[in-house]
Design goal:
With 249 residues, the protein is mostly helical. The protein has helices at residues 3-17, 23-26, 29-63, 67-86, 101-128, 130-157, 162-173, 175-186, 195-211, 221-244. The protein has one domain (3-244). The chain is built from ten helices and no strands. Helix 1 (3-17) runs antiparallel to helix 7 (162-173) and helix 1 runs antiparallel to helix 8. The longest helix has 35 residues, at 29-63. The two termini are 17 Å apart.
């Protein structure tokens, strides 16, 4: 399968993940609450593992162990910090929220921008190495599942119909494909390697600053141990992928 096809399939696949929100229609709230935070913990481990075990080593190989590489990591971190601070962009990991119609549009726009950026760096990863692309997609997808569950619940709570929430969540997910096609189109004339350390910064911010605080709120030892285990599992799986399926350069 050629690189363009990988990018297209990964883009469509990420859009389809938006439909996971429909699970909130069939699962009991208590069941969903039990699933959501462990999924968030697993996603946090996957994102941080993806950055540390895959994205940064690949960046060093492609760009050299230079200062500019680490500047791009910091830029990726700061961009997502700015999105949250100045655009009121937040990842929804709660099944209930005091959200009303105007803010739900902002959530969709922010999600579309988030997916577009994701499409940029996953496509850049595929251009460097197919295995790196798959790894980047899997780490991003692990985060999308709890996010889409939360976003869907927020949209419905904010006044959207269930059908409308699913459709618009899916459409916002298509910007992932758009981002991928943009990178593929410009890759012949523009060096897109900088997107890999930029993505590592994104992953580190979302995992450490956005997701980990969500799983630290419980005062129950058993719950915290379970979340810690889920987080560690995310790290371990990404490390195993690095050891068992090293990237080809």
């Amino acid at each position: 399968m050629n690189i363009l096809l990988w990018i297209v399939v990964s883009g469509i696949g990420m859009s389809l993940i938006a439909l996971v929100g429909s699970l909130t229609l069939v699962l009991k709230k208590t069941t969903l609450d039990k699933l959501l935070l462990p999924l968030v913990a697993f996603a946090a481990g996957s994102l941080i593992g993806g950055a540390l075990f895959h994205m940064i080593p690949a960046s060093v190989h492609e760009m050299g162990n230079t200062t500019s590489l680490y500047v791009w990591i910091v830029v990726g971190f700061l961009v997502f910090l700015a999105l949250e601070q100045f655009l009121n962009w937040h990842h929804s990991h709660q099944t209930e929220a005091e959200t009303r119609e105007p803010l739900t549009y902002l959530i969709l726009v922010a999600d579309a921008l988030h997916n577009f950026i994701g499409g940029l760096f996953v496509a850049a990863s595929f251009l460097i190495d197919i295995r790196l692309g798959i790894t980047a997609w899997l780490a991003a997808a692990a985060h999308e599942v709890p996010q889409e569950l939360g976003d869907f619940a927020v949209l419905v709570h904010g006044g959207w119909s269930k059908k409308g929430a699913l459709i618009y969540n899916f459409l916002s997910g298509l910007t992932f494909l758009v981002g991928g096609l943009v990178v593929y189109g410009i890759s012949a004339t523009v060096d897109v390697n900088f997107l890999i350390p930029f993505a590592a910064g994104n992953f580190l911010y979302i995992g450490a600053a956005d997701l980990i605080p969500e799983i630290k709120k419980s005062s129950k030892v058993r719950t915290n141990l379970f979340h810690f285990a889920a987080f560690t599992a995310g790290l371990a799986i990404l490390l195993a992928m690095r050891l068992w399926f090293p990237h080809e350069h």
